Amino acid sequence: MPRTEQLNIRITPSEKEALVAEATRSNLKVSDYVRKRLLGLPLTDADQLLIEGLATFGPQLRASLALIEANMREIAKLRR
Q1: pLDDT score of 22
Q2: pLDDT values of the chain reduced to their tens digit, one per residue, 80 residues
Q3: Cβ neighbours of residue 28 under 8 Å, at least 6 residues apart?
Q4: In Å, how far are 47, 63, 77 from 55, measured between CA atoms?
Q5: pTM of the entire predicted model
Q6: How far apart are CA 28 and CA 50, in angstroms?
Q7: How far from 35 is each of 25, 32, 43, 75, CA to CA, in Å?
């Protein structure tokens, strides 16, 4: 569907600077960036893949971090 409607808002120069920076970081035009953020859409396919990957990898990561934490506690005990 073609985009025929406009929405005009007023923002401060610093708000615009932040929007431009975030859009650039996301490799999007400012209008595309704002639209995606406003509608709750993923910024890029890569972002969505990363989120899904982290959700899958999360339990393994937490388990690994728990082991590291346990090892650090043991090392601290040995140093006393």
Answers
A1: 86
A2: 899 999 999 999 999 999 999 888 888 899 999 999 999 887 776 766 776 777 788 889 899 999 999 999 999 999 98
A3: 36, 43, 44
A4: 12, 14, 34
A5: 0.53
A6: 18
A7: 16, 5, 10, 51
Do residues 44 and 26 lie in contact, with contact meaning Cβ atoms separated by under 8 Å? yes
CB neighbours of residue 9 within 10 Å:
6
- Using only C-alpha atoms, the chain has a radius of gyration, in whole angstroms, of 21
Write a three-state SS string for the chain.
CCCCCCCCCCCCHHHHHHHHHHHHHCCCCHHHHHHHHHHCCCCCHHHHHHHHHHHHHHHHHHHHHHHHHHHHHHHHHHHC
